[in-house]
């Protein structure tokens, strides 16, 4: 008996943060989306991230979910990276000038509910094991929880958001070159006899670092690394190792009473050369991984999703050309490379030993903490606020840059973007002919520039001398030409 084939516009593989945001965006835009996840429903993704940065909060704001995510976390205005180095986003020009501490599963909860409400078809206990593509679409074969052949999906596009051990990546012939950068990292959930006076504490010493974060229900998450205990991933993690890690960094083990879960893992620095192969895309950890330093992994994956979703919508729903999808590779591979470099620099500086290297580390620390212009630059890059895409030669200076959440005559930019909309901003009083999925707004002041903001909050195009023809061509390239019916 041949297996059932389920047709869908897009098959997203992996219900981690990247897949959830992407699937939610696509479904909100009216596309049919299946989200295949090998885990059973409600069984946690091994939740790791604790930090959400400002740029992702801006992306969430443009979807109406930032307030909820912020309310569930702890905003702090400084994040200790190592020794003298602190990330200080408090001077950044954003609505969210802080680092938000919140467990990854809290972020996933909000994203999952949004995706469900938007109509994403969740297929849990469905592991994608084979991917084939032809000129018209992609076919994915799956296995169920018992390893038996499961549903077959046929989609116009497939996105592998299936994490570091992606099945999609090898299925499209992509290697994952790079190295292991930190081994024998410790991750554990503990109960404490005497809790710290803050929801999280963090410290780094010459022999390692530790982070202790409140997770709710009396649990604390320990994350850390101890140079003195370097063992293979499968070596049992002893309770004493966890205690020693805490004592080494905080002078106390907080009287650990119980360790319901513990694990040892390693951290790699790797990036797939191609994020797009035909009709298949890679996003999130499936495309890039790096050390937890700087807390950028989930944040980068979420921005991959925000970059790709509107492009798929523009092509599938609004008639934009296929070449638009190539900009995903051009833009996000470059950002991934930059993030690998930033995170690698931080982790290497944090782990250096010896006098000369300690000196270097202090200098690196000063760069991220003491010298204001450089510290602000570092904060803007790590939080994603300062990241821009390469603009074509001769383009207006705004092209490719992040569009800040300015107040326009019709309201805040991020609010106008909701529903995955482009926003065309023109000088006050000026008319423009735009399709239904583009919002036309006006600068609140006397600014003369005309600019098109993409749904992911970057300027697609801008000009100080607008003409109807270049505006029409820009809208056709970036936003497609069809007007959505709903
Ligand atoms: C200790 C630690 C701390 C971290 N802290 C931070 C932080 O503070 N901030 C930050 O931004 N990042 C942080 N990260 C990184 C962050 O956890 C990851 O970048 C993030 O989880 C990646 O999300 P993702 O959706 O791309 O992949 P994942 O979260 O790995 O999700 C992939 C999903 O795909 C599913 N899957 C896999 N294969 C298949 C298949 N074949 N078929 C169907 N489903 C499949 C998996 O079950 C999983 O649910 C940290 C990482 C570590 C290790």
TrEMBL record:
Q: Which residues form the FAD-binding domain?
A: 8-342
Q: Which Gene3D superfamilies match?
A: 3.30.70.2450, 3.40.30.120, FAD/NAD(P)-binding domain
Cofactor(s) this protein cannot do without: FAD
Q: Which UniProt keywords apply?
A: FAD, Flavoprotein
Q: Which GO terms describe its molecular function?
A: FAD binding; oxidoreductase activity, acting on paired donors, with incorporation or reduction of molecular oxygen, NAD(P)H as one donor, and incorporation of one atom of oxygen
The keyword Zinc is annotated on this UniProt entry = no
Q: Which InterPro entries match?
A: FAD-bd, FAD/NAD-bd_sf, RIFMO-like
Name assigned to this protein: 2-polyprenyl-6-methoxyphenol hydroxylase
* Annotated organism of origin: Nonomuraea solani
């Amino acid at each position: 008996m041949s297996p059932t084939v389920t047709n869908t516009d897009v098959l997203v593989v992996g219900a981690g943060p990247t897949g959830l945001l992407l699937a939610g965006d696509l479904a909100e835009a009216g596309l049919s989306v299946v989200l295949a996840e090998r885990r059973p429903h409600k069984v946690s993704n091994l939740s790791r991230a604790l930090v959400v940065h400002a740029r992702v909060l801006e992306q969430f704001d443009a979807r109406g979910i930032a307030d909820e995510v912020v309310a569930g976390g702890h905003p702090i205005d400084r994040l200790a990276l190592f020794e003298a180095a602190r990330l200080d986003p408090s001077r950044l020009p954003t609505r969210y000038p802080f680092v938000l501490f919140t467990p990854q599963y809290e972020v996933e909860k909000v994203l999952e509910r949004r995706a469900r409400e938007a109509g994403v078809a969740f297929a849990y206990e469905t592991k994608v094991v084979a991917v084939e593509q032809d000129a018209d679409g992609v076919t994915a074969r799956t296995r169920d929880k018992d390893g038996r052949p499961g549903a077959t999906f046929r989609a116009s596009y497939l996105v592998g958001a299936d994490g570091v051990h992606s099945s999609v990546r090898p299925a499209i012939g992509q290697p994952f070159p790079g190295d292991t950068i930190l081994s024998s990292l410790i991750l554990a959930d503990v109960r404490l006899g005497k809790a710290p006076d803050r929801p999280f504490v963090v410290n780094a010493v010459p022999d390692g670092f530790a982070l202790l974060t409140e997770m709710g229900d009396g649990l604390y998450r320990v994350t850390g690394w101890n140079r003195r205990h370097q063992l293979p991933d499968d070596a049992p993690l002893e309770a004493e190792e966890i205690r020693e890690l805490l004592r080494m960094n905080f002078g106390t083990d907080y009287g650990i009473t119980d360790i319901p879960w513990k694990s040892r893992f390693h951290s790699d620095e790797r990036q797939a050369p191609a994020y797009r192969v035909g009709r298949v895309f890679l996003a999130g950890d499936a495309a890039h991984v790096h050390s937890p330093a700087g807390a950028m992994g989930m944040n980068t994956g979420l921005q991959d999703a925000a970059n790709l979703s509107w492009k798929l919508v523009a092509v599938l729903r609004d008639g934009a050309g296929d070449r638009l999808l190539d900009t995903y590779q051009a833009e996000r591979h470059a950002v991934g490379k930059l993030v690998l470099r930033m995170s690698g620099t931080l982790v290497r500086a944090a782990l250096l030993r010896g006098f000369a290297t300690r000196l270097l580390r202090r200098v690196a620390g000063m760069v991220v903490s003491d010298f204001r212009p450089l510290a602000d630059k570092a904060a803007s890059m790590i939080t994603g606020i300062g990241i821009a895409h390469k603009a074509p030669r001769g383009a207006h200076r705004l092209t490719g840059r992040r569009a800040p959440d300015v107040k326009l005559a019709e309201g805040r930019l991020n609010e106008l973007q909701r529903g995955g909309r482009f926003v065309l901003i023109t000088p006050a009083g000026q008319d423009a002919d735009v399709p239904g999925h583009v919002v036309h707004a006006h600068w609140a002041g006397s600014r003369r520039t005309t600019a098109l903001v993409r749904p992911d909050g970057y300027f697609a195009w801008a000009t100080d001398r607008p003409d109807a023809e270049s505006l029409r061509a820009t809208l056709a390239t970036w936003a497609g030409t069809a007007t959505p019916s709903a």
